[in-house]
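Subject: complex prediction, re-run

Hi both,

The earlier run crashed halfway through, so I resubmitted it with identical inputs.
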Amino acid sequence: MNLTLKIWRQSGPTSDGAMHTYQLADVSPDMSFLEMLDVLNEQLNEKGEEPIAFDSDCREGICGQCGLMINGDAHGPEVTTTCQLHMRSFTDGETITIEPWRSDAFPVLRDLVVDRGAFDRIIQAGGFVSVNTGSAPEAHSVPVPKDDADRAFNVATCIGCGACVAACPNGSASLFMGAKVTHLGLLPQGQPERDERVVNMVAQHDHEGFGGCTNIGACTAACPKEIPLDVISQLNKDLRTAIKHGH
Amino acid sequence: MDMPDTTTAADPSHSGILDGDYDDAADYYNPGEPLVDTKAPDGPVADRWQNRKFEARLVNPANRRKLSIIIVGTGLAGASAAATLGEAGYNVKSFCYQDSPRRAHSIAAQGGINAAKNYKEDGDSVHRLFYDTVKGGDYRSRESNVYRLAEVSTNIIDQCVAQGVPFAREYGGLLDNRSFGGVQVSRTFYARGQTGQQLLIGAYQALERQIAAGTVSMFTRHEMLELITIEGKARGIIARDMVTGEIQTHLADVVVLASGGYGNVFYLSTNAMGCNVTAAWRAHRKGAYMANPCYTQIHPTCIPVSGSHQSKLTLMSESLRNDGRIWVPKNQADCEKDPREIAEEDRDYYLERIYPSFGNLVPRDIASRAAKNVCDEGRGVGPEVEGVRRGVYLDFGDAIERLGRDAVANKYGNLFDMYARITGEDPYAVPMRIYPAVHYVMGGLWVDYDLQSTIPGLFVTGEANFSDHGANRLGASALMQGLADGYFVLPHTIRDYLADGPFETIAEDHPAVVEARTSVEERIQHFLTVSGTRSVDSYHRELGNIMWEYCGMERSEDGLKKAIDLIRTLRDDFYRNVKVLGSAESLNQSLEKAGRVADFIELGELMCIDALNRRESCGGHFRAESQTEDGEALRHDDEFAYVSAWEWTGLDERPVLHKEDLTYTAIEMKQRSYK
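This time it finished cleanly. Structure:
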């Protein structure tokens, strides 16, 4: 198939960017979206034009490093990561618009590459259980009900890609935060720090410039791991409880 | 360089299996002094780790903050070490090339993590896990290290559960286990098909906690490009800030490489795009020996290449072979047909035919080699890429008829979905296509029992070292080793080295630092000023083709020699004709790749030399000349029961081979059989 690509190009964090238009011919429907960009980059390199910078690493949908706005949708038209999107989801002659994640809290570094360090800092604020290596009790000493363990796993599958933020009209990271708060809150190991965790993570979230949640649900619709919206209810509940406890 | 002593290198009269004259590896390397692990403890294997931990000197808590540690890589081995050493109070700097430490490729491991908990009371024990691992490694791993790995495996599960890792559980609330990789006990802990992700997130959270506590400084999007050695000791690294292009000097008292494996030397592998050998290779060039670089694990059930645009390969769980039947058409003429139209009598279920007792469940390397052979015969299926169809059918037709579609979907639904997403084909209706892919490397930098390389002050953990898996790794053991090294081994052994502190302060204008920094800057300038005509990727792809063809599933003397010539030619051309655009002072992904590919090219040559020297078949290394009449791998314990540790002597110089003899006191060496 033949495609017209409109791609955001920006040479550095402080430079102005602009959309550039490229024509790409003979695209195979079996290519992944990122392989299509690889092919474009090889052609640009050939012509003496600098290749387009974009992030990816595992290319199997688990590391969370990739992520593009494709025709206005985070990760494009399918419920998956950008790296697992294939060109058979597009049609011959189509124009595809490709932009970096949209969020003030994820500044653009170059072209389609953004800085998601804010997510790491939210985890630093409380997304952990304080247990030094070697101090853990025998694993079977605390049974965990299977339903809790399964649900904790389901929300722990968050890959930290940032699609929820990019999709949210408010630029909120509530789904990301809610997934972590819910994961650890469902397990006995997460209880001692439960109040502090949610208070500190929310404070860091707001400090980073992410917006508030107004229950739009665009985050969960864009999430490649289908983290459910109710983790945000859990986040709010935990926050209320913590405030009641005097935090 | 002295001329090689050919009598030491390869005397064909010893082998008894090879005919004719051959000079073999002796033209490619020089023999060196034997290598001895001076940290290896004596005594019964079960007591060695306890003894070593006791003998390793302690560092006063008040002094730890003054001792600095650099850790390169944030996968299971790196993140766990950084967190643990931070908790202990050392001054840690952690580096990763990704945008967050959580993205390291440990995250992609699917199956699970082994531990000798014996929760199933099915006869498992530390000794049995030790035994299975040594046997699985085809008796080419170090006994002491493997025993220690099995011993600390139980602590790993405790630690991860306490961190909130959501392992699969039974209805009573206790942890579930499954049997994995053909062993007869259930010792594998798992979190659905995403165990690596959950374990890494656990280690990542522990690391982030230390970053917040100020014990660890984190450098994301930074790539180590050189090791700094002063008076023979590792004292820091030169790193490039991949966003600004700034070349930085980071000095420390000790350096840890947890930089992962080098499977991407094959261009296509199941590794992440960024996985590379540069950190390890720069250390090798500075004096760290590289051990068993030819030991590569190839996984038989990956999704095949769909075209020349292919950038990486995706693994599917081997469990698919429990119910799927593997076949190719008997006649080449049928290869283009819809498989559903190929009559039963025209199908060749080649594994069931050649290995009637194990059939589709033969070990990974046998299944992989057989697939390559039928494709080389011209009977492969799927799209033709560069003139060959590289794929075989994995057919669930019989299983669906026997068990019903729902039962198959229950067992394999997520894998079928993944396959459908990538290929656009429905595996319930049309047989899947699979092909082997490079998955893991057992080789890596040589380390002693303390995980210290041949450069004092340089420690190596996880897949980056060679120590625990011998010539082949068991399923669910990579995660175990990464976390064992980082949480429980390195923190004890590194203190013995640090107990010599405080160390002399090094100035940034020390000649050795300046030299390291200048060499990095010159190399970058070279790539940007060659102004050739070929892209970095095109060289990488060509290197991968050479490696896959001649140093892949089956290696032969002629093939390896040819590969070495081809690689040397490729290297010359690369330095003269590579085209890297852009500047050094910005985010430049072509420039990043250029450095990595340059190092892969040099590594590829050493892998071929190592494979050439090892004139036996063992584990993931199959030499065509060393097989039984039935085509099975034939080991030669009398000649090759040693670790090959290679010393760098310079570009275009012959590397020096140091042999570390492997002896087993607790286990008897046996030859495997799958007939």
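The CA atoms of residues 167 and 195 of chain A lie 28 Å apart.

- K.
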